[in-house]
Amino acid sequence: MREPAFWRTDGGRGSGALVRALLSPLGHLYAWTVARRIRTTEPESVGIPVICVGNLTVGGVGKTPVVLTLLQRLAEMGQTPAALSRGYGGTLAGPVRVDPDVHTAAETGDEPLLLARQASAWISRNRPAGAKAAAQSGTSVIVMDDGHQNPSLAKTASVIVVDGIAGWGPGTLFPAGPLREPVATGLARADAVIVMMPDGETPPDYRGLGLDDLEIPVFHAWLAPTAPPPPGELVAFAGIGRPQKFFDALKAAGADLSEVADFPDHHPWTSGDLDRLNALAAAHDARLVTTEKDWVRLPAEARTTILSWPVEARFANPAALDGLLRDIMDAAGEAR
């Protein structure tokens, strides 16, 4: 979905505030439903640690790159990690182990294809069933992409990711705003918070985000390119939670952008979309470039000509992140 304009703050005045006020009863009903499900569901344990990387808002905040980094750090510690995802946007219910050489984004969703490049990745609409399948395959720790509001699988630790610029939006609950649940309620079940900023130099506004008095670790992280942007004239397009972040990152890295085109998150690329994008690139004598997440959703023939620009999550204090992961694994070992 595309983020509506009324989810942005406007000082409490104007049409945005009116729409939020009208939708706020639905938001409270949505939050009550989430809270009731969490309160009445008995989480199922699968015998190995489960680290959930979730968020409190609807839309992209950088969870998947964070999951990729956690998978890498855990593997470097001698663990055998696996990713677990619902497989949003895919047709397969699972449990299925994702094979990037066999499966398509239409079957598994886009994030699992990216995760499968780093480690074993499983999709399952039934999270405990997917976790059991991963455990039976020899996995020593599961990193779950999303699911903070899903109580069906017992979590060893929950990590909340938040966009440091967008924050919690106007503080209203979906559909009146981007919040899946009240911030205080969601943070009360968290073991750490990761604030995603545009770069490593811009410090997060911990006080403005209400994180300055938390008694759990709060990390500063950002998405950084793993390679320079492609040379020459470029037309960039993206169908992610916040496409402008991708365009801004390209410009900051020195890319020569002729034009940009944004689409809703998880947008399924059609032949008409690709015809229009190719025509736009031809008009500027430019090449098309997109995110890795968008690139994996493209038809195979389109991936031969359209470029992707890979990024990764980096942390201001990677040693502290490693310490958190070791503490989680040590605590899980003591509990068994």
Between the first and last Cα atoms, what is the distance in angstroms?
41 Å
Q: Note the main sheet.
A: 9 strands, mixed
Number of domains: 2
Low-confidence sequence ranges: none
CATH architecture of the largest domain, by name, is: 3-Layer(aba) Sandwich
At the fourth level of CATH, the homologous superfamily of the largest domain is P-loop containing nucleotide triphosphate hydrolases
User: Total strand count, please?
Assistant: 13
Please name the CATH topology of the largest domain.
Answer: Rossmann fold
**Tally of alpha and pi helices:** 10
- Largest sheet: spatial strand order: 3-4-2-5-1-6-7-8-13
Which structural class should the secondary elements be placed in? alpha/beta
Q: Helix-strand pattern, N to C?
A: HEHEEHHEHEEHEEEHEHEHEEH
**Strand residue content:** 15-25%
Q: Which term fits the overall shape?
A: globular
Helix content: 25-40%
Taking all residues together, what is the mean pLDDT? 92
Radius of gyration: 20 Å
Which class of the largest domain in CATH terms?
Alpha Beta
List the keywords.
9-stranded mixed beta sheet; 4-stranded parallel beta sheet; alpha/beta; 336 residues; Rossmann fold
Summary of the model, kept short:
This protein is of the alpha/beta class and 336 residues long.
